[in-house]
Design a protein that fits this description.
This protein folds into three domains: 5-53, no CATH class; 62-209, no CATH class; 210-266, no CATH class. The chain is 25% helix and 7% strand. It has helices spanning 5-10, 15-26, 62-70, 113-116, 169-172, 201-209, 217-226, 238-243, 246-251, and strands spanning 45-46, 52-53, 124-126, 132-134, 183-184, 190-191, 232-233, 236-237. The protein has a two-stranded antiparallel ribbon with strand order 1-2. Strands 3-4 form a two-stranded antiparallel sheet. A hairpin with a 5-residue loop joins strand 3 and strand 4 (132-134). The longest helix is centred in the N-terminal third of the chain and has 12 residues, at 15-26.
Length: 266
């Protein structure tokens, strides 16, 4: 069998095992004492001897899988980040992405210039975000990206709608391209600003932007509807309020100048 260490990694094995296998290939005489068996499991089995599996219901659909992810978000806790109102927290993909997300002195973009001025060695290639990877991986024959921002891929591939089709880290371990101004959904998916994330993280951003703050209630309704951040308020559509000129009456309750959103949009 012509099996490479990269193939072993694609079989959801550990990096340590792949390294030992590569050592076995490179040094066959020195590694003759290695006597390991690796089991390439088929879905849904996993484990060192393919002895485990998750019992998923047969009627499990893609939509029900996505619903499980809507209530989950990861927070980077090693930086104390003040994101203002709302429940959205700092995701690690939002660090050094060219946007200030933390109101406390922009700590998420602090010292990022060190990556921008980073220089790689002759046997390395520079990713768009400043990290260096071995030149051998640059635009290689593999479909997996070595750069966190996938700038080493000729063709950018999106994340699938369901996580049963591939290894979970194939999307979750990557960041959005900092030069494309995209919003990270927190699971590897990148969308345009105010685009919809499959896991629902965009709703947390909308919640932060549409906070009422100190605005009078009627003024707040007028502002969120005119800015088209949300489609309805208290089960009344914004389109209905605009068509009946109700929005003008509510605007009269605003004290000018109006600060909206009530938190800075950075």
């Amino acid at each position: 069998m012509n099996v490479t260490s990269h193939d072993v990694l694609l079989w959801s094995s550990s990096i340590d095992l792949a390294e030992r296998y590569q050592y076995y290939i490179d040094q066959p005489t020195k590694s003759n004492r290695l006597n390991e068996h690796f089991f390439n499991c088929t879905l849904p089995w996993f484990g060192s001897h393919c002895q485990y599996s998750f019992k998923l219901p047969l009627n499990l659909t893609e939509s029900s899988l996505n619903m499980q992810w809507k209530s989950h978000q990861t927070c980077y806790i090693l930086l104390e980040c003040d994101r203002g109102a709302g429940s959205i927290c700092l995701d690690w993909r939002e660090i050094c992405n060219g946007r200030i997300d933390c109101f406390n002195d922009g700590v998420d973009e602090s010292q990022c210039f060190e990556l921008e001025i980073n220089e790689c060695n002759e046997n390395e290639r520079r990713c768009h975000n400043g990290l260096c990877i071995p030149k051998w991986f640059w635009n290689g024959e593999f479909d997996e990206a070595e750069c966190l921002d996938k700038s080493d891929l000729l063709v950018m591939s999106g994340c699938p709608n369901t996580y049963l089709k591939l290894h979970i880290f194939a999307c979750a371990e990557y960041t959005c391209r900092p030069d494309e101004g995209q919003f990270p959904c927190g699971d590897g998916q990148c969308v345009e600003d105010f685009g919809q994330c499959r896991n629902g993280r965009h709703r947390l951003l909308i919640e932060s932007l549409s906070a009422q703050g100190n605005l009078p209630y009627d003024c707040w309704i007028a502002m969120v509807c005119l800015s088209k951040i949300i489609d309805q308020v208290d089960e009344v559509s914004c389109e209905q309020l605009v068509n009946h000129s109700e929005i003008l009456r509510r605007l009269e309750t605003c004290e000018y100048p109006v600060q909206f959103p009530v938190i800075p949009v950075l």
